[in-house]
Each structure stands twice: as structure tokens, then as C-alpha cells.
Amino acid sequence: MLTMKSLAALLLPLVAITSIADAAHAAPAIKSEPLEYTQGDQKLEGYLAFPEGKKNLPAVILVHDWMGMTENVKERALQVAGLGYVALAADIYGKGNQPKDGKEASGLAGKFKADRTLLRARAKAALDVLIKTGKVNSSKIIVLGYCFGGTTALELARSGADLRGVVSFHGGLATPNPADAKAIKGRVLVMHGADDPFVKAEEVAAFEKEMRDAGLDWELIKFGGAVHSFTIKDAGNDPSKGAAYNEKADHRSWEELKRFLADVVPLGR
User: Fold this and answer.
1) Cβ atoms 243, 228 nearer than 8 A
2) What is the DSSP string of 63-91?
3) Which residues contact 143 (CB under 8 A, 6 or more apart)?
4) Burial, 72: exposed, middle or buried (Cβ in 10 Å; 0-12, 13-18, 19+)?
């Protein structure tokens, strides 16, 4: 007769085997650290997050919004690393150049928007240092950004940088050199608040024409009811101000990003 004691003795090895298998397939721990680098004479400090003990991984560069290297972009880098990618939150403004308020942020962002060559150089410095970490597959990198960062991500792609893809979350879409879109090498995904008063319909239409004229593989997704900054919780919850967090748009845009990553820079292939 099979007793409870003998049944337990039979099942114990199976439990042990299952535990070992589960441990073998457990997600690796995520490590994060500051990453200092330079562009010209300017010191920069990014934030690197990655699955520990892994190499030759696809990678994502994340570019901050106009408020600079806040906890928001660092948390997003950790989220991306949690999916299995190396993630670098890039510093565009420079180490120690953190705006205190919207007025300072407007001045800093405006400086770079007025000098697209410098903006591209700062973003390219992040791409270069990411490759030098030795953790990434340099042929499987995308860049994404939020608001000002979305503008920056698109400009890096327009520069002809070797990228598999570019993603903009509620970013500005205008560029002084739309013909440069012909230099974009990867796929393009733009996620836009349908009610964004800062990126007007004329700007969106001009961007669509830019993409068509360049013959690119591109997508533009509009989220109804969303205004500017819809992924940024610090933007508050009053859409009448033109910029506000929108939980639905945040969630849906994150799911779209995961789909894009799986298509463009898949893991394990």
C-alpha cells in the first residue's frame, strides 16, 4: 500500500528537478550603474541597466524629456532591461546640467533644438559609449525618447546612425532638414497623443510626408484623449494644461514598444 510517507519520497526528486529547472530559466538579476562619457569637452553621465552575466544582447538607448536625467528615464531603463535588453539612458544636457523647473528646461531644450548638429552629436556619443561597454550586439540597437527625447531620437536616426529602429513617445516631429530622413536605416515608430496641442496636426502631416518621401518603414499611432507627456506621471493629470499623464496611453504605448522590440531587435536570434 502506498502511504503518504512513501508518496512524498517518490515526489521529492521530481520537486527537486523542477526547482532546478525553474532556477535555470529564472530571469537574470538586473544591474544598474552610472556611466560617464564625453562629447567633445563636455562630460556626460548616463545610466546603464542590463541583465547581469549576459553579453552580445540587443540594446536600447533612451533619451530623457526636457527635464533631463530624472528618475523617470532611469526607471524606464530598468523596465527595458527587465525585458532582457541592455538599456542606456543617455545624457544630452551634460553632467550636472539638471534644470530646476520648466523655464530652465525650456532654455536647455531650446538650445539643442536650435543646434541639430550638436543634438545629434550628443546622441551619437551615447551610441558610441554603449557599443564600447562590450555588452551589446552593435547590429541590434534602437533608440527611443520621450518629448524632447523623441525629437532627439529621430534626429539621431536622421543622421544616418546604424540603428535598427527609432521610437518616439509624444515627441516633437519637426526637423529643419526633412530630406535627411532618407538616411534613416531602420524602422520608425511614433506614438502621439491625438489631442497634443504642442505637436499640431500640421507638424504631424509634415512628418508623414517626410516618411513617405523617404520611402521608410514607419508607423504613427495616435492615442485618443491623450495630450503631450502622456507617459510621464510628473506631468500631472490635468489635460487642459496641454501636458498630462494618461494611464491608458502609457500602458498601450508600452505594449506597442514591446511588440516593436520583438519584431525589430528580438532576443535570442
Assistant:
1) yes
2) E--TT-S-HHHHHHHHHHHHTT-EEEEE-
3) 60, 61, 62, 63, 123, 127, 153, 156, 157, 161, 163, 165, 166, 167
4) buried
* Averaged pLDDT for residues 88-113: 96
- HSE-CB for 208 with a 13 A CA cutoff: 12
Looking only at the bridges linking them, the beta strands covering 30-39 and 187-193 are unpaired
52 or 10: which leads in pLDDT: 52
Phi then psi dihedrals of residue 161, to 5 deg: -60, 150
> Max alpha carbon distance in the chain (Å)?
84
**Per-residue pLDDT tens for 238-268?**
999 999 999 999 999 999 999 999 999 999 8
Taking the C-alpha atoms of residue 267 and residue 83, their distance in angstroms, rounded to an integer, is: 9
Q: For a pLDDT cut of 70, what percent of the chain falls above it?
A: 90
Domain 31-264 has CATH 3.30.1490.20: no
pLDDT tens profile 124-134: 999 999 999 99
Report DSSP state, residue 3: -
Phi-psi region of 223 (alpha: psi -120 to 50; beta: other; left: phi over 0): beta
